[in-house]
Amino acid sequence: MNSHGLGQDPDRVIEQQVRTDRLHQLFRQSFPALFGSYLAALMLCWLCWERFDQQLILVWLVLLAGSSLLRLQLFLEWFRCPDSERTPARWERRYWLTLMLSAGIWGGGALAVMPVDDRVSQVLVMLFAVGMSVGAVSCYSAYRYMSLGSMGLVLLPCTLWLLFQPSPMQVGVALAVLVFSSFVAAATHKLSDALEKAFRLTRQMERAHTISTHASQTDELTGLMNRRAFFEQAQALYAQCRREQQPLCVLMLDMDHFKTINDTYGHQAGDQVLRQIGSVISTSFRQVDVYGRLGGEEFAILLPNTSLETARSIAEQLVQAIGDLRADPVQGLSASLGLASTHTQALDLYGLMDSADKALYRAKALGRNQVAVAG
Fold first, then answer.
1. CATH superfamily, region 227-373
2. Sign of the torsion formed by the C-alpha atoms of 278, 282, 285 and 287
3. pTM metric for this prediction
4. How many angstroms separate the CA atoms of 200 and 30, rounded?
5. Nearest Cα to Cα of residue 327 among 252, 251, 253, 275
6. Residue 335 DSSP label
């Protein structure tokens, strides 16, 4: 169950999940921006082709193309790598560096191509720069520092230059952009906080559901699957073995003289014995095996793709492991096991378990503390 974060610090697990969720949203949401920023520069240059220095235009577009290809390579690596490698530690810094490079080239290039004596061109440049900053808010909303960083690199070069020009109109445009930017910066803070809270709430609800599901499927005393969960998993495993034409073995286990343990030492001692049996079972079988407590002192184990000889050897080792347990003040623990297999009997799941159960009672009749094989 550790794959669901159970048994770990819940706050730390959720924090890691929220960071990963933010990163996934960043890559999914910002992919169009890769082309949008370059298209915006192309459109601006097309509109002002006669007004700008055409040599500077070409240099700017080449540099932007280089940074865009660098970002495209990053996106392709991301989409090709497995989910297990899409971690914030690996990708956040790389994304930040390529984004800041691209935004810096855009903002610096816009300042370089903007004519010093053409007010219409200056307004057009600022209009496109503001549009780019609005796009940054929508694309990088999961990361406030990325939104603000890209906005600053795109807007500030031209805005600061206009702010120190002699014309009141130029200064007014710069001030208007700064006021607009302050509102946008405040909005990015609220938006990123809202997204983080949404991610955290989603993960908290998922964790609560996981804990609830785990509790509903787990035997509280032994930590094994309870009867309902066992049969759900057992039916699925049985159907899989039928489809894949694999053998399936069933072990039925029952503690010997368990009523005597409860009557002699009390139910607390009996519960302690069952907890130890649960621990032995949970550490003795594979992940593909299905095992659970059916009730009282009775347990069941399903072994897929296992030969009858191997299953019998496993059952005998289990009898030995239970015999080696020490649960003071109880002495001399033992268990009887019945084994049935689709090797020898063409039965459905319940028929197979019934056959193993009959073998279990034969093991008890033969003196307990042993394994009996059906058929």
1. Reverse transcriptase/Diguanylate cyclase domain (3.30.70.270)
2. positive
3. 0.66
4. 21
5. 275
6. E
